[in-house]
TrEMBL record:
Residues 82-110 are annotated as: Disordered. This is S1C family serine protease. It comes from Aporhodopirellula aestuarii. InterPro entries: PDZ, PDZ_sf, Peptidase_S1_PA, Peptidase_S1C. GO terms for molecular function: peptidase activity. Keywords: Hydrolase, Membrane, Protease, Transmembrane, Transmembrane helix. The chain crosses the membrane at residues 29-50. The lineage of its organism: Bacteria, Pseudomonadati, Planctomycetota, Planctomycetia, Pirellulales.
Amino acid sequence: MKLDSSPQSSLPCADAAPTPRRCGQIARILLVLICGWSLSFLLGTTTATAQDQFFPSGSPLPGNLAPGTAVPDGIVHGTATDGVSPMANSEAEQDASTRPGFRPKGDTWVKPPEELRELLERGGVPESLEMLRLLQRQQQLVASRAAECTVSVQIGPAQGCGVIITETGYVLTAAHVAMRPGKEAVLTLADGRTVTATTRGMNRHVDAGLMKIDEGQDGGKPWPFASPGTSANLRSGMWCIATGHPGGYERDRGMVTRVGRILEVRDDSIVTDCALIGGDSGGPLFDLSGRLIAVHSRIGNDVADNLHVPVDHYRDSWDKMNEGKSWGYLEGFKPVLGVRGNGTDPQANVKEINPGSPADDAGIQAGDVVERFGDVQITDFESLKSAVADTMPGERVKVWVRREGRLIQVVVEIGRANDHS
């Protein structure tokens, strides 16, 4: 299992009829068509009314436009209270969502044609060429709007993606992309403009991360943002749309779109056959209506084994992440340095080095005193353990140790506990 994404093939699909294997050829045709066509011609103006902006089914989030308000291109703009989870799903919202005139907030929602309702809600294979064309058109419309809120993320030498989720500039990403709270990130927008952001918190148990675009960079305008959905009612066989900037932002290429289907729904991840590659981590996964349902996390050992963080985990962890808290680690990805010490010592004295560990490879020796670990000042062995726990396997960290009165700097590549146990 890798934390940075790369293309992979098909896993068994439970409860899907017909199976993703049977529709693989159609999916490939769609992918070729979508990748081969320019999305620019899709940006012509059409008009919908706010009365029309609600889902054919499900529980859309209420907006603030009055029924009948003209909405160019069918795009719905909502509001979000700064600091409050945009994925909030209160009983009041559920009740309100059944009333005429309410519709989802965000800029990526596209009302699907009635003919696609079954594919949206249950998945399956298009039954005719006309339905195939409608499906292609719907995917193109969603992709064209997703481009505005899908961002490339750069933190130091590391690169990933993110998705803007509120008009005030909150961005969802993967925990391993955000790294740790308080890190400065550079985001590249669809037009090539760069803005700075600061990471907030991370729920590493599921690889969920949060950051926020720094104030004063939007010229007083709201940021384009994804229409929040839910991962509660997903099932195998549903169609999905993955976007991202694999390998980093490229102006001539732009955002990359992949179309696929959900293969498996787990508590902590969603598996799809939307092939992810290096640099996709943190990017968004949408359903056919343009609602955000997950965020790209990692790949497995097969081309179709692409894992995404269910969006409801961001809702459930929002308050803690927004407070700058980080916790947990992905199964199989517990970070390790490979040193032993005494928690009661007044400083971080290294008593033992595990042979073959990252510390051993970096040249740390028994008797060294660790004084600094990356950006963190180390005061004792417990603070060293906390600093290591705040990293990710594969991350390279500068470590300063005092040896025989001299301060020495080494570079450690953090390992995984199961590799150095």
